[in-house]
């Protein structure tokens, strides 16, 4: 099995090391694990691509590359430059430091990498570790992902739904904010929405008097609707959410046609 991995936390991120372990376990002794990850942190870039400027790519070691671009850029670099004649069987993105449940999924560079792979016709799974007090107090904040990651990915790879639609299915996996021993299992869950949890800005002035704005997020431990991703995560379950890049609101198409005549 040939696996391409990327992330949005950067080539040196601890979560990428965890994902490397997961990928090697899945690929097996005869498989290959290729890494193309951002040279610097790219959190919050979503599905951004470096369309207006070039990016430098550097080979760090055998099958390991750093690119000065977004996770989606890294997937493109992997498919068309690093391994153009031997496409991967699977693309894994993560393991993100922090959850990509609910509305976070829309901003996530981790999901952006998986989404680009799906658009390119390659099966893809994004993995993220929900953080919280129990995780911060443990010796390994990625323990739940480290110990349960390979099993979950293997289950999705073997028994999941993989189609050849124009907008192919990809998967968003979030590990709960608990130690591995407290993980209660996994649940297939829709993307939720945290009410009263929005990004905003916080103004600051530099010593020179210049005005700057920091992007500020909302509380992460607010549950979403029962059965949706963040809700099951906070209940100790790994969430598995099938996704597509199609943004059409299909549920209102017919009604809108009638309204507009």
Automatic annotation (TrEMBL):
A Pfam family: SurE
Enzyme class of the recorded protein, top EC level: hydrolase
Domain Survival protein SurE-like phosphatase/nucleotidase residues, every copy: 3-194
Compartment(s) where it occurs, according to its Swiss-Prot or TrEMBL record: Cytoplasm
Reactions catalysed: a ribonucleoside 5'-phosphate + H2O = a ribonucleoside + phosphate
One example GO MF annotation: nucleotide binding
Gene Ontology cellular-component annotations: cytoplasm
Protein's UniProt name: 5'-nucleotidase SurE
Species of the source: Thioclava atlantica
High-level lineage: Bacteria, Pseudomonadati, Pseudomonadota, Alphaproteobacteria, Rhodobacterales
